[in-house]
Amino acid sequence: MVYILQICSVLALASIAIGAPNEKRAPTVYLAGDSTMAENGGGSGTQGWGHYLQYSLSAPVSNKAVAGRSARSYTVENRFQTLIDTVKSSDIVIIEFGHNDGGSLSSSDNGRTDCPGAGDETCKSTYNGQAVTVLTFPKYLVNAGQALVAKGAKVIFSSQTPNNPWEGGSFSYGPSRFTTYAQSAAKQVGANAMFVDHGQYTANIFKTLGKSKVDSFFPNDHTHTSPAGADTISRAFVKAVLCADGGVLSGLVKNSTASVEGACI
Questions:
Q1: Of all helices (H) and strands (E), which one includes residue 161?
Q2: How is residue 160 annotated by DSSP?
Q3: Which residue ranges form the domains of the chain, and what is each CATH number?
Q4: What are 16-42's pLDDT values in tens digits?
Q5: Measured between alpha carbons, how far is 39 from 42 in angstroms, rounded to an integer?
Q6: How far apart, in whole angstroms, are the C-alpha atoms of residue 148 and residue 138?
Q7: Chain centre distance of CA 64
Q8: Residue 154 forms beta bridges with which residues?
Q9: Which H helix or E strand runs over 24?
Q10: What values do phi and psi take at 252, rounded to 5?
């Protein structure tokens, strides 16, 4: 009788072990960025595109974008570290900065400007009366991306959304150096990272929509969009992901490629 009970116990444990792999945890998609992505990031009458991404994904979206932040300030304020501490295996983090990363460190440091350069260059600066070492834009991204991947997460480096490309009267868009830097960061982080040219996909849709429509997307300034504009920009991100066959978001996008306006590039 004891022998039979032991066999039954072993079979029960084996059954539990076999069933365990089927209990796969659903990933969470985290967003790290500035006001163009953040909830109500641009002030009255505006919305960040991150708000609408939840409607295109079958995974929950946690928007950790904060207005006014750059890759540098997001790092210094330990916001990347909080994400690194939070993510679990299979989670996905979308990182999009650039609007607040430009400027100069030579006159006065605003705490957001990065050190010029595309690699390991560093700059010495003074911020709030303290001597600080400032890294380059891609270095901040690579450091965060590598740490997130080490936790089992996957990362999307996304180029910044464009300012109103119709502002001057005719359509004009050219990617900034931060687009190249984000693409470089994805390559350096490796197989568990991808680059999405969100800026170009958005610009292409804006060009098709025309000046009048796109002007209406920017109620306060040339950077922050209305809810309708944010929705359009969110769909541009989804289009870019779909055109890459889903990438690290494979299986999580509810839209079909054809259902989102714009063409693959």
A1: none
A2: P
A3: 29-254 (3.40.50.1110)
A4: 444 444 456 789 999 999 999 999 988
A5: 8
A6: 15
A7: 10
A8: 92
A9: none
A10: -110, -15
Query: Distance (Å, rounded) from C-alpha 248 to C-alpha 145?
Result: 14
Closest listed residue to residue 155, CA positions, set 219, 211, 83: 83
Task: Render pLDDT for 83-131 as a digit per residue (tens, 0 to 9).
Answer: 999 999 999 999 999 999 999 898 789 999 999 999 999 999 999 999 9
* Nearest partner of 162 among 33, 36, 31, 30, judged by Cα: 36
Q: Which residues are catalytic?
A: 35, 221, 224
Q: Are 69 and 113 in contact (CB under 8 A)?
A: no
The number of angstroms, rounded, from the C-alpha of 133 to the middle of its chain's C-alpha atoms is 25
Angle (CA) 233-112-123 rounded to 5° is 130
Residue entry with tokens 């990347």: 80
CA distance 5 to 115: 68
- pLDDT at 217 > cutoff 80: yes
- Paired tokens of 46: 């505006």
SS3 225: coil
